[in-house]
Amino acid sequence: MASPARVLLADDHALVRQGVRLILDGEPDLTVVAEAGDGAEAVGLARARDVDLAVLDIAMPRMTGLQAARELSRRLPDLRILVLTMYDNEQYFFEALKAGASGYVLKSAADRDLVGACRAAVRDEPFVYPGAERALVRSYLDHLHRGVDLPARPVTEREEEILKLVAEGHTSKEIGELLFISAKTVERHRANLLHKLGMRDRLELTRYAIRAGLIEP
């Protein structure tokens, strides 16, 4: 009998992690071997542990699930990734796929969909929650027929990382230490963000970060 797939679970709410763990550990072919409270911790654990699948919440402190997925896809290309989220959102879905996730599961339907999504991911097959396929395909085809590109990212991945940390109240020195860059580089990215987004201060950046789903209000 094959060994169960080893799962890393990342969510900043302990109760959510506990509930998801109960679902997954109840299956003979899945076992949660590590838990993280934010995206940065998830990246560290995935690199340190022998993990087959990472299940990542989108909205987490320090580093979102999408940011963690991008980082993990670069560093651990064989790792399978699922996004588990409360957001029934087309933009997040496409961003998750671009970030390297093979599936997108709604928390509201986790008891129904999560196990199947995990098994599909381990088999290197895509998973989209029921009810989303028609809407997503219809929307995508509509974009193509009208000659409209999918929404472009307004900021770079690095700028997004810095925007999130600025909005969370970290100093330039703290952000530099987290991202392994100098405080001066952080300040330059921050100035670029303010200019690019037409904003004046941290408060406006924070409001933008909330609207973009990088932090919770």
From TrEMBL:
Pfam families: GerE, Response_reg. One of its GO terms (molecular function) is DNA binding. Residues 148-213 form the HTH luxR-type domain. The modification 4-aspartylphosphate is found at residue 57. GO terms for biological process: phosphorelay signal transduction system; regulation of DNA-templated transcription. Residues 6-122 form the Response regulatory domain. SMART domains: HTH_LUXR (SM00421), REC (SM00448). Keywords: DNA-binding, Phosphoprotein, Transcription, Transcription regulation. Coiled coil: none annotated. InterPro entries: CheY-like_superfamily, NreC/VraR/RcsB-like_REC, Sig_transdc_resp-reg_C-effctor, Sig_transdc_resp-reg_receiver, Tscrpt_reg_LuxR_C, WalR-like. This is Response regulator transcription factor.
